[in-house]
Design brief:
The complex is a heterodimer. A seven-stranded mixed sheet of chain A has the order 10-11-8-18-15-16-17. Chain A has 19 helices and 27 strands. By secondary structure, chain A is α+β, with helices and mostly antiparallel strands. Chain A folds into three domains: 182 residues, Aldehyde Oxidoreductase, domain 4; 148 residues, Aldehyde Oxidoreductase, domain 4, CATH 3.30.365.10; 329 residues, Aldehyde oxidase/xanthine dehydrogenase, molybdopterin binding domain (Aldehyde Oxidoreductase, domain 4, 2-Layer Sandwich). In chain A, helix 2 packs across helix 5 and helix 11 runs parallel beside helix 12. In chain A, helix 3 links the parallel strand 3 and strand 4. The longest helix of chain B is centred in the C-terminal third of the chain and has 16 residues. Chain B is globular, with a radius of gyration of 16 Å. Chain B is α+β, with helices and mostly antiparallel strands. Helices cover 38% and strands 13% of the residues of chain B. Classes of the chains: A alpha+beta, B alpha+beta. At the A-B interface, helix 8, helix 9 and helix 18 of A face helix 1, helix 2, helix 3 and helix 5 of B. Bound molecules: FE2/S2 (inorganic) cluster (FES) (2 copies). One FE2/S2 (inorganic) cluster sits at the interface of chains B and A. One FE2/S2 (inorganic) cluster binds next to loops of chain B.
């Protein structure tokens, strides 16, 4: 085997990673296509269980006793509005008012698997798939569906459920119409649908609820679902049902779980990453304290209230064993990256994920730059927490999370039970951003509750613990170099990022016996891979360097790193070529020829140019330097261009305005698309201006919003969003505002000052 | 023994330790879980309640500090100003995950109640809460909406609908 393990030849390798996933899900190994086909048929025939007076219309819809239409959602709502979107699609398809539809969490069943999330991680260019790659995707899709891993992440929830819900709604409406036709003895085409009821020509009518039972008994027919287009709600949006309860403080989050007899646990982890607990004790007279739990790397004090538990923890005598703890400091991590990049093509493991031609022979004017970005914490607004009740025969878990099936599996393991014995309750999530995909906190909470059999225990991470026990956005460093021909166009391009593998770490945490390092971690190179620009003779590479710091998925994952590095460098090339940033990008896109992503990106670039003309940069206040920067990216199957206006006074950088142009194929709920993009831009801006987690000898330096500041009303820019319905397949939305923000701001700083900032957070 | 106060319009006694944070007395003892925990250090505003008409961080307030005072949580919010603020929030469809929103609504209600004629900038500058979902533009729109509604010429219908 050669040193450069190219995943394009790596179907075998990929299969082994898939087997690791199989183990995680506990689906066991599947043998033979026949078994897969049989299992898939079984899965496809799954129907929602219907109680007395209820009527099930298959896997997605049922009519409930109280006359509501219920659509089930196998995803968690962490603010992206997937529940509201499901309501909107079901209402549109059933021609019913949104108030008549309610969303409920889907059962934990294979039918609700999210293969999209995992397929996106395969290192291949979706816009130029080869036949073997297509076959691999098809096979993986089938197998992943039989394994049934549910999950919310990778901006996939709409992509995963929009079409099934549209189909289910169309099919249910057809069944209702046929039931009405039988009841009124009138042909279907003479019936009228009015606001959740069906009207016969003779004026008789029946509500959906009245027809539901008979309709549900009919066999579904093959239905052609009309293509996505602007309808009564689709393409327009409707008020979100979750907004009033959230405004009035009635929406319940995991941390709001209040079960009879519930106790509360305050938790502390070893100050150093990887440290162990030696022993811990607590004064016998600590008020309101019920006990102390000694974990492997944590101590928890359980009390009648969280305040009592915290006060008890403060009084606890705790001794840590740090002999095997991580001693790494931030400087060591970057030194390791530097050393790896210095070895370049000789470094192992090195993955060349996107190779075209050969950059080594390219000639012309050389341009080189090195970029870096720090570790980041998620700091979801609702600190990490989970509530568990364990008995001999079953367990219940209440938690915000990003995968019900993984929660069930991991909680079962921690409680010494079988998956089927674990019930999972999912309230709203006070933010996810990828943090709640890493479920160690559920395991910990179950371990603690297991010491109090029969009593529900809620474990809450203080903000300092939430930051200390995070799985961080990895720090990274990249060397980028290019050669430019006489016309200023690139003749060769090499991109090398030194970064740990998030996927390997994630799999190892979820299933310690799994073997990592088998496949390139595409997620850490996303944002530089398969560029829509014409870049001949290119090599885009990952050097995997793991310093032991736990890393995880952070809103937009690798795009948050690589878009900054890549689109900043494109600006540097424009400057080296003496071209304007938008013009240069236009030339690069034209150089890509007939490549669909280049066409879509170009359409956005035109709109950015139009915005630039229509709304020129406002002059800064007295003594301020102002500048405008641009960046363009494809991420999560969507395209985003951003225009950022900055103002600099002395050493203070302010982002005044951001304009985003978005092509997510078709915006089903445009106001929510705009809200998600705005929110993600602000999330990204916190990182651009302030975000930085540091390690000092294995200790996390930041503890709360004072040492880890985030954006507030005062620093938040005014953001406008322009949505383009290109008609392409639906792309993701929840994360797509993050990637282009950082380079747009850095490019604006360059425009304002002539200084090129290559390190995040941006410091003047 | 306990600390007596007026809580959401009714006389109440808190039996949590007098030097413990009001936040947890409200959440754990009184089950008023609309009061959110975000930082425990007075930095995020998720735990904001209104004490004697002023926005206050309940994580930085001890139980004994509210003896004899009037405390309002999101659960007990009422009146014309609160109505205008929550209407504004709903019109702007402000929440995403929603976790920060009750704290924001409480802070905004106290700030606007202190002077319903103030400008948007004056109101916004007193809102120092954090929203990790980045709903700041929508919150600005909500404040505009609330101030607009409160300062519009009163119509009979409007008066009728206010509680
Ligand atoms: S929890 Fe009180 S200010 Fe953050
Ligand atoms: S809406 Fe999620 S933190 Fe504000």
């Amino acid at each position: 085997m050669s040193d450069e393990r190219k995943p394009s030849r790596g179907v075998k390798i990929a299969r082994r990673t898939f087997l690791a996933i199989a183990g995680v899900v506990g689906g066991g190994l599947l043998v033979g296509a026949g078994a897969v086909a049989w299992r898939l048929r079984q899965i496809d025939n799954y129907k929602l269980p219907a109680g007395d007076g209820e009527a099930s219309f298959g896997a997605w819809l049922k009519f409930t006793r109280d006359g509501m239409i219920e659509v089930v959602v196998p995803h968690q709502d962490m603010g992206q509005g997937i529940y509201a979107l499901a309501v909107l699609l079901a209402a549109e398809g059933l021609k019913a008012p949104p108030e008549a539809v309610r969303a409920a969490p889907a059962p934990i069943e294979a039918r609700y698997a999210n293969p999209v999330m995992l397929l996106d991680g395969l290192p291949m260019d979706e816009a130029a798939l080869t036949a073997p790659q297509r076959a691999t995707l098809w096979t993986f899709d089938k197998i992943l569906r039989t394994l049934g891993l549910q999950g919310t992440g990778g901006s996939t929830s709409t992509r995963n459920i929009a079409e099934p819900i549209r189909l289910a709604a169309a099919s249910a409406l057809d069944m209702l119409a046929r039931a009405a036709s039988a009841r009124f003895d009138a042909p279907v085409d003479q019936l009228k649908i009015v606001g959740g009821a069906i009207l016969a020509p003779d004026g008789k009518s029946a509500t959906y609820g009245e027809l539901a039972e008979a309709a549900a008994k009919l066999a579904p027919r093959a239905i052609a679902v009309p293509p996505l287009a602007i309808g009564d709600y689709v393409g327009k949006g409707a008020p979100r049902f979750d907004v009033p309860p959230k405004v009035y403080g009635r929406a319940k989050y995991g941390i709001d779980t209040r079960e009879p007899g519930q106790l509360y646990a305050a938790i502390r982890h070893s100050p150093r990453l990887g440290g162990r607990l030696s022993r811990a004790s607590i004064p016998a007279d600590a008020a309101g304290v019920r006990g102390i739990v000694e974990g492997k790397d944590y101590v928890a004090v359980v009390g009648e209230t969280y305040a009592a538990a915290m006060a008890g923890l403060d009084k606890a005598d705790v001794v840590w064993d740090e002999s095997n703890a991580l001693k790494v400091s931030t400087g060591d991590v970057f030194a390791a990256y530097r050393a790896a990049l210095d070895r370049g093509a000789d470094y192992k493991p090195r993955w060349v994920i996107d190779a075209v031609g050969d950059p080594s022979g390219a000639t012309g004017k050389a341009v080189k730059a090195t970029y870096d970005a720090p570790f980041l914490a998620h700091v979801t607004m609702e600190p990490i927490n989970a509530t568990a009740l364990v008995t001999e025969t079953g367990a219940k878990v209440w938690a915000g999370h990003q995968s019900a099936s993984l929660v069930q599996l991991l909680a079962a393991g921690a409680a010494g039970l079988k998956s089927e014995q674990v019930e999972v309750f999912t309230p709203f999530l006070g933010g996810g951003f990828g943090r709640r995909a890493d479920l160690g906190y559920v395991v910990t909470a179950v371990e603690i509750a297991r010491k109090f059999m029969g009593v529900p225990v809620q474990t809450i991470w203080s903000r300092a613990e939430d930051i200390r026990d995070d799985v961080y956005r990895p720090a990274a460093m990249a060397d980028v170099s290019a050669t430019l021909g006489d016309d200023g166009m690139p003749t060769g391009f090499t991109y090398r990022i030194a970064v740990p593998s998030i996927t390997d770490q994630f799999v190892a945490r979820a299933m310690p016996s799994a073997k990592g390092g088998l496949m390139a971690d595409r997620t850490t190179v996303d944002g530089a891979l398969f560029p829509f620009y014409g870049l001949p003779n290119r090599s885009i590479e990952n050097l995997t360097v793991d310093s032991g710091v736990p890393v995880g998925f952070w809103r937009s994952v690798g795009y948050s790193l690589n878009c900054f590095f890549f689109e900043s460098f494109i600006d540097e090339l424009a400057a080296a070529a003496g071209a304007k940033p938008l013009d240069y990008r236009s030339r690069l896109l034209a150089a890509a020829g007939a490549y669909e992503p280049a066409r879509r990106a170009h359409a956005l670039l035109h709109r950015m140019g139009r915005y630039d003309q229509a709304r020129p940069l406002a002059p800064g206040a007295d003594g301020a330097k102002s500048g405008r920067g641009f960046a363009l990216t494809e991420c999560f199957h969507s395209f985003v261009g951003q225009v950022a206006d900055v103002e600099i006074v002395d050493k203070t950088l302010r982002v005044r305005r951001v304009h985003a142009v978005v092509d997510c194929g078709f915006a089903i709920d445009p106001p929510n698309v705009a809200a998600q993009v705005r929110g993600a831009i602000n999330y990204g801006l916190s990182a651009v201006l302030f975000g930085k987690i540091d390690f000092d000898q294995g200790r996390v330096a930041q503890t709360n919003f004072d040492s880890y500041p985030v954006l507030t009303l005062e620093t938040a820019p005014e953001i406008t969003v322009e949505i383009v319905n290109s008609g392409a397949a639906i792309g993701g939305v929840g994360e797509i505002g993050v990637p282009a923000l950082a380079p747009a701001v850095a490019n604006a700083v360059f425009a304002a000052t002539g200084r090129r900032l290559r390190s995040l957070p941006l410091t003047l | 023994m306990g600390v007596d106060l007026t809580l959401n319009g009714a006389a109440a006694t808190l039996s949590s330790p007098p030097d413990s944070p009001l936040l947890w007395a409200l959440r754990d003892e009184r089950r008023l879980v609309g009061v959110k925990f975000g930082c425990g250090a007075g930095l995020c505003g998720a735990c904001t309640v209104i004490i004697d008409g002023r926005q206050a961080r309940s994580c930085q307030t001890q139980v004994k500090d509210v003896a004899g005072k009037t405390v309002v949580t999101i659960e007990g919010l009422s009146g014309d100003i609160a109505q205008a603020v929550t209407d504004g929030w709903i019109a702007a469809q402000a929440p995403q995950c929603g976790y920060c929103q009750p704290g924001f609504v409480m802070a905004a209600t106290a700030v606007i109640a202190a002077d319903p004629k103030q400008t948007r900038e004056q109101a916004l500058s007193q809102l120092t809460n954090i929203c990790r979902c980045g709903t700041y533009d929508a919150i600005r729109a909500a404040i505009d909406h609330a101030l607009g509604a409160l300062n519009a010429a009163p119509s009979p219908q409007k008066q009728g609908s206010a509680q």
